[in-house]
Amino acid sequence: MVDGDTIVIQKTQIRLFGIDAPEMNHPYGRKAKWALHALCKGQMVEARLTEVDGFGRTVARCHLEDGRDLSAEMVKAGMAIDWPKFSGGEYGCLEQPDARKKLWLADARQKGRMYVWKKFEARQAERRKDC
After folding, report:
1. Domain 6-130 bears CATH identifier 2.60.40
2. Which of 6, 38, 89, 118 is 20 to 30 A from residue 64's alpha carbon, by CA?
């Protein structure tokens, strides 16, 4: 696992279709990564390519052996949120009631409020300098 919405299959990084999970240095980032790891551990994962995004990343619908959709499972677990711009709202009904509040940086990114993201990153950088 790279993070909460990216896995690696045969040396290829695959971004999970239609969802957004926190970055590793953001609140809940590590928890999201380990939630995805727990879902995939010991499982064969099937990835069906949907596109290569604007950043050159492979995007795929990924399913476990029992047919469960990894994107749906991460949203149901409260470790990711639906990204309607890419999913068409497919996972919105699966979101936990407090998911967007808890994953506020991902929510801000989706809504184009990058100043929130940048402010958080600047605070993190200040904290690292103070240590």
Report:
1. no
2. 89
